[in-house]
Amino acid sequence: MKTTTKIKTLLVLAISSFVTNTSTAQDNTSSTNYDQGFRLGVGLNAGYAVNDPYKLALGADARLQYDLSKRYSLTLTTGYTNLFVSKADGNDVGFIPAKAGFKAFIWNDQFYVMGEAGAAFAVSNGNNDTSLLLAPSIGYATKYIDISVHYDHYADFDRINNNGTLGKGVGQVGLRLAYGFKL
Predict the structure, then answer these.
(1) Beta strands in the chain, from DSSP E residues, in sequence order
(2) What does the pLDDT look like over 56-85, one tens digit per residue?
(3) 69 in Cβ contact with 34 (< 8 Å)
(4) CB of 68 closer than 8 Å to CB of 38
């Protein structure tokens, strides 16, 4: 009889524990509802172009962000960026980027990784090329401030290879400082 009593006691404790954990979990999920919504960020970008003939990149952007949850967001980014040539005999390239992306917060709801893809539309110095644009980044964001390091790859912009021949594909490593707010 002692074995049967122990089994019954353990069964009652297990069921009680399950019911308590289940009702606690249900109460916690309903109290942490996250409001989905839009945010707008305005940023300044400075970077270093990793391919000749370009060296410096400066720009400004606006990013519309839709928060799917507290950790995941969709983004649309546009603005203006200028790649400055390193020598006086070349032409700078100014372009308007148009990118869509996905942002995922990975640590403490402040550190994130983001990937964006889109196009860069050249608009200066008689250049009317359009390039595929791929841009991964990592960053830190608070309620109002967003700081990120990004790499932008412009697949169809001309570059000068090490042997002096003309090639395609220009890369840029940059820093973005932005102010953001909820719409």
Answers:
(1) 37-49, 54-67, 72-85, 93-107, 111-122, 130-141, 145-160, 166-182
(2) 999 999 999 999 998 999 999 999 999 998
(3) yes
(4) no
